[in-house]
Design a protein that fits this description.
Structural class: mainly beta
Distance between the termini: 104 Å
CATH superfamily of the largest domain: L,D-transpeptidase catalytic domain-like
Number of domains: 4
Strand order of the largest sheet: 17-24-23-19-20
Shape: elongated
Length: about 450
């Protein structure tokens, strides 16, 4: 009985040892990595003969940033159980960390598969790709420095020498999956205090600065930053202390330097300007202004370097609205209408048709410049009754008529719709009322 128990114990122990050995054989490999100048070589001893056909399908490559896994590799079998994998980086940026995964690659032993995880830290020399010398920057905006290889983010400030000090943060990239990743080749430099306009700053990265994978900068890297001059605003409309300004003025500015952006702050609204050329911009107000009110408009411009002008503060006063004064407001919306006011009281509403696209009248304040019994359009061989001129290109008119002075059916039926004509088209009845009641210099507002 004791002998039987002894044999049973030995058998159980043997089975356990075999299972442990099988587990060790399945889960244990010998692997090492040699990083050369242009490539890395991975050697793996699986301890069991492997199925070599189709082995590549079990290999996956993962970079530090999932959307950038640019590697090329080749597989060579040294022995049935030993494989050599040569891998090199194919992207412009070299010296990244890469992880290779082998998942459940089959062995010659039925039912036993092998997996392995290998980490590679490629080496690459350190160079500054951008900016170049005499790079033009603003006195307070951030700028970007790009390296040829991922860098050690915590060490850059320690190896930077410059008259100015900066906050340095790695650039964040948003991938197609919406997630953000850190790009250790690009760093955003933000001055801790404004730089001096017109001054040149020398940035020197000192020898020994480490990359993300441990490569050291072998010689100082130097480039020069040129801080831009502040742009200046030479003219605005309205000008300082202007009076009798219309209730929906087309604010404008002129800059001495070429600009890429213009803004104005008025009545707690910040409005981005529309550039007409490199030196001029205009602004569309959110709503009409109040009569007999003093407003403060703060204009600023920005040039290509990011430098912003000093604020140009302009105070102006809007026109008065006498109780019996007539004026018009054209509201450009899905259903365009003309409102007629007497003082601040709305006395008449008229449906109109406006031009669309390039035919649309510019928004702003106009004044009646003259009237005529008829309007003739030689280009389209058309005309209309009751012409009220508000500029050299735009005015009010009645229904469109053909060369025989017949009202175009389409024009009368589509009143309120957009047209391919510059004039603001009204019914003959409304056009006649304006023609008979509006005096010269009547204020006319066209707004959104």
């Amino acid at each position: 009985m004791n002998r039987y128990r002894q044999k049973l114990t030995i058998l159980s122990f043997t089975i356990v040892v075999i299972l442990v050995l099988l587990w060790l054989i399945k889960g244990f490999n010998l692997s090492w990595v040699e990083v050369k100048k242009d490539y890395a070589e991975i050697t793996i001893n699986f301890l069991l003969p492997m199925e070599q056909a189709g082995f590549e399908q079990y290999i996956k490559w993962l970079g530090e940033v999932p959307y950038e896994n640019n590697v090329d590799y080749s597989v060579t079998w040294i022995k049935p159980e030993v494989v050599s994998i040569k891998v090199k980086e194919t992207s412009l940026i070299k010296g990244k960390k890469v992880k290779m995964l082998i998942e459940n690659a089959p062995t010659k032993w039925q039912g036993i598969c092998k997996s392995e995880e290998v980490h590679i830290a490629f080496k690459a020399p350190i160079h500054i790709l951008s900016p170049q010398n005499d790079f033009l920057i603003s006195s307070s905006n951030s700028f970007e420095v790009q390296f040829s290889t991922p860098m050690n983010a915590t060490q850059i400030n320690k190896f930077l020498q410059c008259d100015a000090t900066f906050y340095i943060k790695p650039y964040m990239v948003t991938a197609t999956n919406g997630k953000q990743y850190t790009d250790l080749t690009r760093f955003v430099f933000t001055p801790k205090s404004p730089l001096e306009n017109g001054k040149r700053y020398v940035l020197s990265f000192k020898t020994g600065m480490p990359s993300h994978t441990g490569t050291l900068l072998d010689e100082d890297q130097v480039f020069v930053l040129q801080v831009d001059q502040k742009p200046s605003i030479t003219k605005t409309y309205p000008a300082k202390q202007d009076k009798w300004i219309g209730l929906y003025p087309r604010l404008t500015l002129e800059s001495k330097e070429p600009i890429v952006k213009a803004t104005v702050m008025i009545a707690n609204d910040k409005i981005n300007g529309i550039l007409t050329d490199a030196h001029h911009a205009y602004f569309i107000l959110q709503d009409r202004l109040k009569p007999e009110t003093t407003y403060e408009a703060i204009f600023q411009t920005q040039v290509a370097s990011g430098e912003i002008s000093e604020p140009e503060t302009v105070q102006f006063t809007t026109t008065t609205l006498k109780q019996n004064r007539l004026w018009l407001e054209v509201v450009c919306s899905q259903n365009t209408v003309v409102y007629c006011y007497q003082g601040e009281k709305k006395i008449k509403t008229m449906v109109c048709s406006l031009g669309e696209g390039k035919y649309a009248p510019p928004l702003g304040t106009y004044y009646l410049q003259g009237k005529a019994d008829v309007y003739e359009d030689a280009v389209h061989k058309e005309g209309a009754n009751f012409w009220i001129k508000i500029s050299d290109e735009y005015g009010f008119q009645g229904y469109i008529r053909d060369a025989y002075w017949n009202i175009l059916t389409s024009a009368s039926k589509s009143l309120g719709a957009r047209t391919k004509r510059r004039n603001i088209i009204l019914s003959d009845e409304d056009a006649k009322w304006l023609y008979e009641n509006l005096p010269d210099n009547t204020m006319i507002i066209i707004r959104n």
